[in-house]
Amino acid sequence: MMSQANLNNITTLPVVKYGDPILRKKVEDVQEFSEISFKVQQMFDTMYEEGGIGLAANQVGWNLNLLVLDTSGLEGEEDTEPLVMINSKVIDKEGSSVMEEGCLSVPEIRAEIERPETITIQFQDEFNNRHTQTFSGLVSRVIQHELDHLKGKFFVDYLSPSKRMLINKRLLEISKSGKPSTGIIL
Ligand SMILES: [Zn+2]
Description:
By secondary structure, this protein is α+β, with helices and mostly antiparallel strands. Helices cover 28% and strands 27% of the residues. The chain has one domain: Peptide Deformylase (Alpha-Beta Complex).
């Protein structure tokens, strides 16, 4: 998949899967912005190639506080724009909502997860400009999912012990071979 992509000048990277220790570590803030634009491009290319709508830097093996997302390909989300968020800090949360989530690092497992509906975040873009912005709906949901990655957390960590039991074997299979023998929606 990679070599074929590279022929078209697309710079995709392998997505790190559940079980890799880098996905359990809190990342470090970005200090050096000079090469960040190329990294951002690689992350977008990888995310689009994999059919994702969000990606955290440690999902491509980088210990960096960086995430990208683009929900504009989904119905009802056409007005949203691709976002690059660096050194993000949540400064406010409000409300709650339940949505089904999936993850490129936890393939073929989906689950309904409750999270705050609205979040306000301070972050930097790839040009080192600072922003404070409030998000709700699907974009808020994706940001929160990716921010969890950057803290070493997975959406499946929110599942009740009984639901977690239903996927433990699949998580082990992902750790060993990159994908589960069967998918599941919880
Ligand atoms: Zn994820």
